[in-house]
Specification:
The protein contains 13 helices and 18 strands. Helix 5 crosses helix 12. It has a 5-stranded mixed sheet with strand order 3-2-1-6-11, sandwiched between helices. Strands 14-13-12-17-18 form a 5-stranded mixed sheet, with helices on both faces. A 4-stranded antiparallel sheet has the order 7-10-8-9. It starts with a helix and ends with a helix. By secondary structure, it is α+β, with helices and mostly antiparallel strands. Among the domains are: 116-189, 2-Layer Sandwich (Dna Ligase, domain 1); 263-323, 2-Layer Sandwich (Nucleotidyltransferase, domain 5). It is found in: Cell membrane.
């Protein structure tokens, strides 16, 4: 675990250095598209870190943006390295050209990789009467880390609540007086191979990876308004290959999960059902699709223009009701699966049960009505927050995770590795390695 802790610390320092130099790129590696935004920071306050060393607020604007069709990515994970590398290069170079500046550091987000959530708790007695940075480090390292299995890595580890003696719900207890400090921490683990492949793909493009994040998390940061993040809400990010789920409470993510189904599955159902190429199926889904049929849809005919050379096959017509009949079952299946994950997380016990749909797949007409029947009454479609300099083409729901990455870079939340971990918490094998090094070198 210490290797990951150290690499996250190194990435955090790299991100801080890149922001102080003024330019950093964010990369959203999705199943259907790869988006790159180049950010210019105009005034990072490195001394502003009252909550973690990275919490200096930074003003930024988007100076370059590009998007390209994703290649070599399936279910949010890299499947063909060379193809993904080419797609990343294309997006980054186009964004650099628009910004007219070279970028060396990128912060990337990805979906999929089987995220799992854990709630951890720890408490310690204070050394003095006033809570210090060291006390925060000690209480975070006192959390019992579960055995999350071989081949998995910690992606996020955020303290979501502090309690000092009998007072709970503290955001930052430093400088306050008490005798016993407790914390609740939310930890997300993902399959290590997915993170390693992403890091390798970025390195092959001659770029430095200065941070990684889960798409489900950053989409929630971008699409949920402040009240929803405070009172409790779920963000459902419907992408091409996966549907990310994140639940926020008190402005912190308290649960994350993903369903390995998305908009591409609806497209492939249309392609198979109507015997048309995937590109035609995507166009039908985007411009003519829906999930709620009316009496008019039986009479509205759609021309399926094919290029097979068979005149009869190329000049077919189907009704819009038939298209909706193919799309609805798959969309229902995705929403039912999301419902299962929300129930498992205990979402119904939150004081507010707002659900926000975002991501490219959320633009299917009538989806919010169907979702409110399956998921609960309070459903709305979410667009990402407006970011300074963002082009009009990148303001739709499909760019929620890219915009969320900008906010994640500019205003990071505290993570476990923002604090110095006490030496006694280092795993024994690291100490054994140090002892061996001393023996060999002295």
């Amino acid at each position: 675990m210490i290797e990951l802790y150290e690499s996250q610390r190194a990435m955090r320092n790299m991100r801080k250095a890149a922001m102080q130099r003024g330019v950093v790129a964010v990369l959203d590696v999705g199943t259907s598209k790869i988006a790159c935004l180049v950010l210019r920071f105009d005034g990072v306050d490195p001394a502003g870190g009252d909550v973690g060393s990275m919490a200096g607020q930074a003003g930024f604007r988007v100076i370059g943006a590009a998007t390209t069709r994703s290649r070599g990515v399936r279910f949010g994970e890299i499947e063909a390295m060379a193809e993904t590398e080419r797609a990343i290069r294309t997006a980054v170079q186009a964004a650099q050209k628009m910004a007219n500046i070279r970028v060396d550091h990128v912060i990337a987000c990805f979906s999929g990789a089987g995220p799992r959530s854990y709630g951890l708790a720890g408490e310690v007695d204070l050394d003095g009467t006033v809570v210090t940075e060291q006390d925060i480090s000690r209480v975070l390292s006192a959390c019992d880390v579960p055995d999350y299995g071989q081949g998995r890595e910690v992606l996020h580890a955020q303290p979501v609540n502090f309690a000092l003696d009998h007072r709970s719900g503290l955001i930052d207890p430093r400088g306050q007086m008490g005798t016993r400090l407790a914390t609740d921490m939310h930890m997300v683990t993902v399959e290590a191979a997915a993170v390693q492949n992403l890091a390798h793909a970025v390195r092959r493009c001659d770029l430095e990876l200065a941070g990684v994040a889960s798409s489900a998390y950053v989409s929630g940061v971008a699409a949920l308004v402040e009240d929803e993040q405070e009172l409790g809400a779920a963000c459902i990010d419907m992408g091409g290959g996966t549907t990310g789920i994140s639940i926020f409470m008190k402005k912190h993510m308290i649960y994350a999960d993903a369903v390995s189904m998305g908009g591409d599955h609806v497209t492939s159902d249309i392609s198979l059902g109507l015997q048309v190429p995937p590109a035609t199926a995507e166009r039908l889904k985007t411009f003519l699709g829906g999930v709620v049929a009316t009496g008019m849809d039986d009479r509205e005919m759609i021309d399926l223009e094919g290029e097979t050379g068979d005149w009869e096959h190329d000049r077919r017509q189907v009704s819009r009701a038939e298209l909706i009949g193919i799309m609805r079952p798959r969309v229902e299946e995705i929403l039912e699966e999301v419902r299962v994950r929300l129930d498992a997380a205990g979402f119904e016990h939150l004081p507010s049960q707002q659900i926000v749909l975002t991501g490219g797949g959320s633009q299917i007409p009538g989806l919010d009505g169907l979702a409110s029947k399956i998921l609960g009454q309070q459903v709305r479609l979410g667009r990402p927050m407006r970011v300074h300099g963002l082009p009009q083409a990148a303001t739709g729901p499909g760019f929620a995770s890219a915009v969320g990455m900008c906010l994640f870079a500019a205003h990071p939340q505290d993570e476990w590795w923002d604090f110095e971990l006490p030496v006694e918490k280092y795993p024994a094998r690291s100490l054994r390695r140090a002892v061996k090094w001393f023996k060999d070198n002295w």
